[in-house]
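Methods — Computational structure assignment.
A single polypeptide chain was analysed. Its primary sequence is given first, followed by the predicted tertiary structure written as structure tokens.
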Amino acid sequence: QEQRELVVMITPHIIEFDPELKESPAFIQEAGTRLGASELFQQGVTLERQVTLAARRTPEIVRYLQAIDAYQRVADRYPTHPYAMEALWRIGVLAREQVHNPALAEAAFQRLVAQFPNGKYAARAGRQLKAIRRAQSRLAPAVKVESPIATFGFR
């Protein structure tokens, strides 16, 4: 028995679709990807900025970790999506400034610079990397700081 897909899109353009095609056109397949990335990214923003009542009731550190996880999913699942670069930037900033996890921040900034060398956050990420490395070099070589969440993210 033949199965059919129903795709509902709201657009100001008329889209013609040939019912004889065996596959959906690329623009229809990409629509779900964009929506998924946008929703995940917005979830991160909501948690990071305490937009909802549920976010406000969640302990701060938990919210930041959940936001990092949402941003990580954007960067991992949709690496070419426009939100991927900003997701990596936000992971780095949250990891460094809120969660105090320089290893996670460094990994996010490194990935951002490698993946988007000409992106709008590349230069800032490079400066953040230098600052993290300077701070790490100031630590005595005998002292090793381990974070309980050092392995969080980057699966």
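Note: The chain is about 60% helix and 0% strand.
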